[in-house]
Amino acid sequence: MGSLGFWRLAQADPGWIAAVDPDGTEHPAGELLARANRLVHALRALGMKAGDGLCGLVPNGVDGLTLYLAALQAGWYYTPINWHLTGPEIAYIVADSEAKAFFVHERYAQEGSRGAEVIDPGRRFSFGVIDGFRTAADLTAGHPDTSPPDRTAGAAMHYTSGTTGRPKGVRRPLSGLDPDDAAELMTFLLSLFGMTPGRPNTHLVTSPNYHTAVTQFGGTALHMGHTLVYMDRWDAEEMLRLCEKHRVTNSHMVPTHFKRLLSLPEEIKHKYDLSSLKWMIHAAAPCPVPVKWAMLEWWGDCVYEYYAATEGGGTIATPEAWKKHPGTVGSAWPISELLIVDDELRPVPTGTPGTIYMKMAGVRFEYKGDPQKTEANRLKDHFTVGDIGYLDEEGYLYLCDRKADLIISAGTNIYPAEIENEMVVHPKVADVAVFGIPDDEWGEQIKAVVEPAAGVTPGPGLAEEILRSLEGRLAKMKWPRTIDFIAEMPREPNGKLLKRKLRDPYWEGHDRAI
């Protein structure tokens, strides 16, 4: 194989700045390589072997990147843990992943310590100082920074946020490949977007690294020789400043980011030089068509979209393809296939919504420890995450909603995402969620929860104004019956809306019909 892969690149050019921490500290590739190598030697000395796993509860930055790079060359599974979880939720993942080492950053000492109770005290390590943990610096002290023997490719094992029950680890068989060769194969994903290896290229990490796509896109950009610039928490103007300062060429974003960027004052939007942007890739939630048009007008033809799942397979929409098919999430990757089926699992005609099944050539996965769940979501070689959508004549996919969010009112299927996309473009709406609540007559009625834009007063007048704006754009039967207001929408930092948190209170004491 060629000359891609972090470890090869770092040996060839140890002075290349591989990563920049949120505080601005620059890390040359040679230093990062040495840290990852020492960590492999140290954990092997504790008895870790290929196929074992380790967990990290760490913020965005080089500490987590070191864990990832160590695992990927020692044949380990690396599981980054969501830092918003509580002690018992963290403990569940540490135990379920059968972690042989658990690393916690001092910032998350409180919940991390509670989560660590399920693992042997000799296998708890900290970045910074935490009571009852051995520091990572102490763990690696005295170990060589030479390349470890018997290198073999490891993998990230992410836990899905899952809409039902406990999260599940998505585990792929290890390839047995040389780590650099495996890394080079990973770069196929970014080449789908036309992304090129080498310098000068900079990837901005905008979202928490415990998300699959964030790890995947950042890790792959690094293997292509791009510099990673980490944000600690996302802020619209700060993102623009970093894009100018580091001449950012690519990033991975979500539609919520676009909405916040577009609401910046005009003078701020045009204050920064964004001419370096080439591949600004978004996913994770449907993007309202007017929002996407506005981003393309502002940033030019560098806004790419894709639809995929942790489990594998997906679609891609180039800027040109999206302009010809507004609203699409793209057509299938060359190695991926789409299948849309009805409730009887029969393929549906073009233009008809159904459950989306995907398949990716040569990719198998399992939900760790749950063969039933793995099989339940499969249809032969295809699998589904429960999304509903349809294909047009040219094979472009359009998303309707998640099956779990479908509203059935008076026997009609109503897709909340369609209503949300129309409401969110109102200038006084910062964010919106639509879902069904109990209705004795209709089964379910449509409820909207709105986060008003900054400085806008919520109340009946605003609710009326938002509803009137739907006139002529949305059939009356799809209008929310009522609108409630909320100070801040419960979203994960990757933009995923925690709709259950909003919906559940309305369903207390009712049996959910669907």
From TrEMBL:
Coiled coil: none annotated. Residues 139-175 are annotated as: Disordered. Transmembrane segments: none annotated. InterPro entries: AMP-bd_C, AMP-bd_C_sf, AMP-binding_CS, AMP-dep_synth/lig_dom, ANL_N_sf. Pfam families: AMP-binding (PF00501), AMP-binding_C (PF13193). Residues 418-496 form the AMP-binding enzyme C-terminal domain. It comes from the Bacteria. Residues 7-363 form the AMP-dependent synthetase/ligase domain. This is Acyl-CoA synthetase. It comes from Sphaerisporangium dianthi. The lineage of its organism: Bacteria, Bacillati, Actinomycetota, Actinomycetes, Streptosporangiales.
